[in-house]
Structures are given as C-alpha cells and as structure tokens.
Amino acid sequence: MKNNQNGLMKEKDRMKKWTNLRGENAWTMFKVISEFVDGFEKLNEIGPCVSIFGSARTKPNDPYYKKAVDIGRRLTEEGFGIITGGGPGIMEAGNKGASLYGGVSVGLNIHLPFEQNNNKFIDRDKILNHRYFFVRKVMFVKYAQAFVVMPGGFGTMDELFEVMTLIQTKRITQVPIVLVGSEFWGGLRHWMKATMQEMESNISPGDLDLFHIVDNADEVAKIICDFYAGGKEGELSPNYEMDKA
To answer: Lower CB count within 10 Å: N or C terminus of the chain?
Structure first.
C-alpha cells in the first residue's frame, strides 16, 4: 500500500505546472456582463437583420466586394437590417450596401492587436465595440434571421461552422445559411460530402442541406424570402432566449 502511495506521489510530481500564470480575476466577469448588456439593449431595438460574414482583406475592386454591396442592397430592399463585423473588406461592403440604400447598418467591431477600425458605412448609433470574441458571436447569431457567408479566411470559417453546429444541434432556430461563390465554396462542400459524410460518417446526409451555395444577390434574397414566405417557419424573432438555452 505504501509503495502504491509513493508511486502516486511521484506521478503527481511529474505533472506539468504553470511557469507563467496570467489568470483572469473575478472583475473580468463584470466586463463580460457589460458587453452582453450593451449588446442586448442595442440590438433588441434594431429589428430583424441578416449577418454577413467574409474577409477583411477583400479590396473594393474585387468582384466579391461588389457582390457584397449588392447583397446588402437587396436585403435592405426586402426590409432586413445588415449586421457585419464592422471592419474593412466584405464587412465594409455589406454595410455600404445597406447604408447607401437607406437600410439599417450595424457593426460589431472587435479589438485586435492589429487595430481594426469601424468602417464609415455603419450607422453611428449602431456600432458595438467588443473585447471578447465569444460575446460578439452571440450578437451575430442571436439577432440574425439568416447568414450570408462570403469568401474569407479562418475567421469566416470559424463563424460559418459555429452557426452550422448551433443549427445542427438545435441550439438555435434553423435559419437560412447562404454561401456566396460556387468556385470558392464548391471544393469545401465536395470534401464535406466525400470525406466527412461518406468516408468517415462524421455528419449525416441532411447536414449538407443546412446551407446553400449561390453566386448572386438575387439568389441570396430569394432563398431568404422564400424561407419566410407565408410565415411557415414561424414569426421573425431572435434565435434563442438565454434563460431557456
């Protein structure tokens, strides 16, 4: 028995220990709560929106930038506000499409080491600045009646797969997810079907129906409007209530 105890003590001694501990203190929670409160109070008043995701690196002369402007315009014509991450590139384009055509234009900015500034097409009273990505994600998801995903990098993929996971696991209401750019997204969908679904059985066949791939603004608007036609999918409302999750 004594030898066993000595052996356990030696095992514990070999466990890794922090060499540089920078833990959060309890006061951090107040910063987190304040971001949630500010976001809920502002976005509750804005009304139904569509969140547009995409690269911050996309330039104004890029065809996808121009498509994002057109998508912002079309969705504004259909009565939806536009929510983006508030920065440059596709985010700026989505806000521009809403702003130039008299729509609601929201920006959920994030503080980054390489400072991201708000683009000039966001309504001045609809800018939310976030310290924490996870709070920002809640705001993107809770108030969106649909998600439009333009070509992007790791951040765009993170946002896309988070939304698909939440819908797949029924943690949020099912709403349209529209990927724009068949050339960009086609290879990903093929890999998901051939490898994730058929080879490894890591997703179900119906999971690929969670999203659509299209190439222009009219197709985006049609998918979203058809989804809500006749109220068959229920009333327009935030995707979930925190106290019922």
So the answer is: N
How far is it, in rounded angstroms, from Cα 193 to Cα 213?
A: 14
Q: What is the DSSP string of 104-143?
A: -EEEEEE--SS-PPPPTTS-GGGEEEES-HHHHHHHHHHT
CB atoms within 10 A of CB 8: 10
Q: How far apart are CA 114 and CA 79, in angstroms?
A: 35
Alpha carbons 140 and 107: distance in angstroms, whole number: 10
214: enclosing H helix or E strand = strand 212-214
Q: Cα–Cα distance between 56 and 114 in angstroms, integer? A: 12
* CA–CA dist 183, 170 (Å, integer): 29
Upper half-sphere CA count for residue 55 (Cβ side, 13 Å): 14
Is the pTM here over 0.85, yes or no? yes
- Convert the pLDDT of each residue in 92-144 to its tens digit: 999 999 999 999 999 999 877 665 678 999 999 999 888 888 999 999 999 99
CB 50, CB 143: distance < 8 Å: no
Nearest residue to 68 (alpha-carbon basis) of 223, 220, 182, 225: 220
Spell out the alpha helix ranges (H) of the chain: 2-13, 28-43, 63-77, 90-100, 133-142, 154-168, 182-191, 217-228
List the domain boundaries for the chain.
Answer: 30-227
Residue 148: phi and psi, rounded to 5, are -110, 125
